[in-house]
Write a structure and sequence with these properties.
The complex is a heterodimer of chains A (762) and B (119).
Chain A: H1 2-30, H2 36-55, H3 59-76, H4 84-106, H5 112-126, H6 130-133, H7 137-141, H8 147-150, H9 161-164, E1 195-203, H10 205-209, H11 214-223, E2 225-232, E3 250-257, H12 261-267, E4 275-284, H13 300-313, H14 325-330, H15 348-351, H16 369-395, H17 403-426, E5 427-429, H18 431-434, H19 437-448, E6 452-457, E7 462-464, H20 465-486, H21 490-495, E8 502-511, E9 514-521, H22 528-537, H23 549-553, H24 577-586, E10 590-596, E11 600-608, E12 613-621, E13 624-629, E14 633-637, E15 644-647, E16 651-656, E17 659-665, H25 666-669, E18 683-688, E19 694-699, E20 701-709, H26 713-716, E21 723-728, E22 734-738, H27 740-745, H28 757-761
Chain B: E1 2-6, H1 10-22, E2 26-30, H2 33-43, E3 47-51, H3 59-67, E4 77-81, H4 86-95, E5 99-102, H5 107-117
Parallel strand pairs in B: 1-2, 1-3, 3-4, 4-5
Helix pairs in contact in B: 2-3
Classes of the chains: A alpha+beta (762), B alpha/beta (119).
Chain lengths: 762, 119
């Protein structure tokens, strides 16, 4: 069943969203920001997961969600206060729910132990014993220890059958109805003796007001067997006092059926309370086998005839002289005049419904990401193609003011517009990554016996999908690090005069065309003497090296560095900060740390908004064409000779207004030439690195600004230091995109890897 | 026959649409009570199926607003909910619901319930 499978995929997608809402809502409640709508949305999230799970027969998920829902319902109904201890339990319950969903998605079994423990805990709360029994810290400190919770009942799944029995499935399973839908009569041989039921049915006005209709109920009754119907219209008042929507008619129906009283009463299930109803059984009527109901088992025509006969019994007092007037009484009186033809007329429903309106237009559309990726690739090619065309046009000597050149300019603008729009389609808020973090924080905090609170900012910050996918890993690592290494234990914090609960702030923001992620903790900060000593012990730096605070902080990114005395379960998962830094750098990103002893540390991760295109300055260096990302460039200038001041044997600085910046000859750093050119003979690009430090790059000349499509050098060749990626220029040549931060932080005297250069010359 | 199905869950809307389209109904969907009212006045309906727990305007409120007046006040409304308890049913009925369908529904049950209130 393909369609059902598709809906199942939708269900799990929706589950992810709902779990996100659930967590967001619970966190808002935790921060005291939750109003009743927040509580409602939390309830709805659990409720919807349960509903969908029921539709797909995911019983384990339904059972668990049901217990969760019951507790949430109590909170929603105000029967239980949303105290912090309860919200902490609910948050962990949400984590277990997420696990259950994941298990259901994979078709596997969720972690039984965790489920049983959680269910037991939820049920304790439902029973009102949550806060008193396990006051405060206990459930928080040892949530995974099943021994504390299981003893309550050691039955396999941990909760009482009564709770399970609440799952709402109609008394008769749907299968009984059979694929034919109608309750097909049982084979004659098996027929139990038929009973004659006398049903007296007097609809009240409220029955009609709820759009129920006597005719349909009588027809349903006729499905049960054979019927004899009698209409009592004595109560119908005089026309001038009649309430057109009142209920005046009474029917008595003798139903001969093999069905029991329950089946008869079930027909009136929907109208219970809106009618007077009596059902009395008579003697079995063995002689009469019920006539098998066929297509129109109930003689509707006869019924209508009976009904129509009624008005004729009325005094023929017809003030308006409308011949239809009696008819409208015969039809269920609740029918407002304007509504539609009397539905009890058998032909009406089929005849109605001419041109229906099209189905509702959806506000959003879902598109296979591969289609967008292909579109982006194509647009990338279009950009390159447009650039090549422009170059050829100018090579053929068309003046910039010529029609052709101006047409090309417009084409360029359009191309850019298309590119921006396409990129915007693929942009997503970082929320999808951020929403996994509260759970991570809880888990890590639990494992490390620390108390931590996560504050998230800028979840709506949008970034290209290609980048989103790469954000999770470094953020996870930074967050683990912040809790494991940054925050102190509650005792230490209190001793230091801080609240026992540490705060970790996770923020996303746009800064100069990049996305910046900050992970800030209010912990103890980096222990610099210790970090320095470890680096010396491990031979990472010379013992006599003079390092600034910032340089010491950044030592933790060195390969083979780990400060934790004992490698903890959390941060020491074989992935050091050096690996994180390398993977971030491979994306054209940067990671740095700043720290204040005693007050905390901040990790800052910055990545390009997209990994697909880049605005760059095309420059000439020693005969090579290079691209410098525009986001790094502050300004370009031609220096006067007197502004250049030599510094040391090889270096030089440039006076720019009030400050001196280091001069870096791109050609020398990349190994294109041995001797730097005189800065005043070239062009200076004033660039700013991630750390905010400015440098002056020396190039031979500038070709201009261009948007280039990034082609990964790593994927096509290998990683080259100082080079971020490559691109194809308008003339079809490959140009390298320089990694400005690597350039300016490269040790000056070291010759670069020369063997990488021929690529640029190709 | 045109069915307006109101449910905040995309999964449920898809399920309803699938079952109803297969049964030959024309289907109009809405994501909450407010949207349901809009769709009702826009395209009308012969039967309304609605969820109870929804943001903005919940099922009870939606039913009350439909019944309160206007040309669609006599449209049969089936409440679709996992709540089988009597209290929820009663409240839905007080609001003016015609009948209910208990989730998880079997497509045949759904069609059967529609047949009971319309057709």
């Amino acid at each position: 069943m393909d369609e059902l499978e598709e809906i199942k995929v939708t269900f799990f997608q929706e589950c992810d969203e709902l779990l996100g809402d659930l967590e967001t809502g619970l966190l808002a409640m935790e921060n005291g920001e939750g109003d009743s709508e927040t509580v409602n949305s939390v309830f709805r999230a659990v409720h919807s997961i349960k509903g969908g799970a029921g539709a797909f027969g995911l019983d384990a998920l339904v059972r668990y969600a049901h217990v969760f829902e019951t507790l949430m319902d109590a909170v929603r109904g105000g029967r239980m206060a949303a105290e912090p201890a309860l919200i902490r339990v609910l948050l962990r319950a949400a984590d277990v729910l997420a696990d259950q969903v994941t298990a259901a998605r994979k078709g596997g079994e969720p972690n039984q132990e965790a489920t049983v423990a959680m269910v037991a805990e939820l049920e304790r709360w439902i029973a009102g014993k949550g806060s008193s029994g396990e006051a405060g810290a206990a459930p928080e400190a040892s949530p995974a220890a099943p021994s504390t919770v299981i003893d309550e009942d050691d039955v396999g799944f941990g909760f009482k059958p009564a709770a399970i029995a609440l799952i709402e499935i109609e008394p008769e399973p749907a299968a009984e109805t059979g694929p034919e839908g109608e309750q097909a009569p049982a084979p004659i041989e098996d027929l139990p003796p038929a009973t004659v039921w006398t049903v007296t049915f007097k609809p009240a006005a409220s029955l009609y007001a709820k759009a129920n209709e006597a005719g349909r109920l009588l027809r349903e009754l006729a499905h049960l067997g054979s019927v004899e119907t009698e209409l009592h219209d004595e109560a119908v008042p005089h026309l001038d006092v009649i309430d057109p929507e009142g209920g005046y008619l009474t029917w008595s129906v003798r139903v001969t059926t093999t069905e029991g009283e329950r089946a008869v009463r079930e027909v009136f299930d929907f109208v219970d309370g809106d009618c007077e109803l009596s059902v009395t059984g008579e003697e079995p009527a063995p002689a009469i086998a019920p006539e098998a109901p066929t297509e129109e088992p109930f003689d509707l025509a006869a019924l209508i005839a009976t009904a129509k006969a009624a008005p004729s019994a009325l005094p023929s007092h017809d003030p308006q002289g409308e011949p239809e007037a009696p008819k409208s009484i015969a039809a269920p009186p609740a029918e407002p005049a304007s509504a539609r033809p009397a539905p009890s007329a058998p032909t009406a429903p089929a005849a109605r419904q001419g041109g229906g309106e099209p189905a509702a237009a959806q506000a959003t559309i879902r598109v296979d990401p591969e289609r967008i990726d292909r579109l982006i690739d194509l647009v990338g090619e279009l950009v390159i193609n447009q650039a090549m065309l422009a170059q050829r046009v100018s090579a053929h000597g068309f003046a910039p003011s010529s029609d052709v050149a101006m047409g090309l300019d417009e084409l360029e603008q359009l191309t850019r517009g298309i590119q921006d729009s396409v990129m915007a389609i693929r942009a997503q808020p970082v929320k999808s990554v951020f929403q996994r973090m509260p759970r991570l924080l809880r888990e890590v905090a639990n494992q490390t016996r620390k108390q931590a609170r996560l504050v998230m900012e800028g979840e709506g910050t949008e970034v290209d999908k290609t980048v989103i996918e790469r954000l999770a890993e470094p953020i996870t690592h930074m967050l683990r690090n912040a809790i494991d290494h940054g925050l102190e234990s509650p005792d230490e914090r209190i001793a230091a005069g801080k609240p026992a609960e540490g705060t970790v702030r996770l923020a996303a923001l746009h800064r100069s065309g990049r996305i910046v992620i900050e992970v800030e903790d209010d912990g103890k900060g980096i222990n610099r003497p210790r970090v320095r000593q470890i680096a010396i012990d491990k031979g990472l730096i010379p013992a006599d090296s003079q390092l600034s605070d910032e340089e010491i902080d950044n030592l933790i990114f060195l390969p083979g560095f780990s400060t934790a005395g004992v490698i903890s379960d959390i941060s020491g998962r074989g992935v050091g900060m050096d690996v994180v830094r390398r993977s971030v750098q491979a994306l054209g990103g940067r990671i740095s740390i700043s720290s204040t002893p005693g007050a905390g540390s901040t990790f800052t991760l910055s990545l390009p908004l997209t990994l697909a295109v880049l605005d760059g300055m095309v420059v000439d260096v020693a005969g090579e064409t290079l691209v410098v990302p525009l986001t790094n460039i502050v300004e370009s200038l031609r220096p006067k000779p007197e502004d250049v001041h030599p510094l040391g044997p090889e270096g030089a600085v440039l006076a720019v207004r009030d400050s001196f910046v280091r001069l870096v000859d791109i050609g020398c750093v990349l190994g294109f030439r041995k001797q730097p050119i005189a800065p005043d003979k070239g062009v200076i690009l004033l660039v700013e690195g991630e750390d905010g430090v400015r440098s002056a790059l020396v190039a031979d000349g500038i070709h201009g600004q261009r948007q280039v499509v990034i082609k990964s050098l790593e994927a096509n060749y290998r990683q080259v230091e100082g080079i971020a990626a490559a691109t194809i220029l308008g003339d079809g040549r490959v140009a390298l995109i320089v990694d400005v931060d690597a350039l300016v932080t490269a040790p000056r005297a070291t010759p670069r890897a020369v063997e990488t250069i021929p690529l640029a010359a190709e | 026959m045109k069915i307006l199905a109101v449910d905040d869950s995309r999964t449920m809307r898809d399920m309803l649409r699938m079952a109803l389209v297969k049964a030959g109904f024309e289907v109009v969907l809405a994501v909450d009570g407010e949207h349901g009212l809009e769709m009702l006045s826009e395209s009308g309906a012969d039967v309304i199926i609605t969820d109870i727990n929804m943001p903005k305007l919940d099922g009870f409120g939606f039913i009350e607003r439909v019944r309160e007046g206007g040309e669609h006040r006599a449209v049969p409304i089936l409440v679709l909910t996992t709540e089988s308890d009597q209290e929820k049913k009663d409240r839905a009925r007080r609001a003016g619901a015609t009948g209910w369908i208990v989730k998880p529904f079997h497509p045949d049950k759904l069609v059967d319930a529609i047949r009971r209130v319309a057709a």
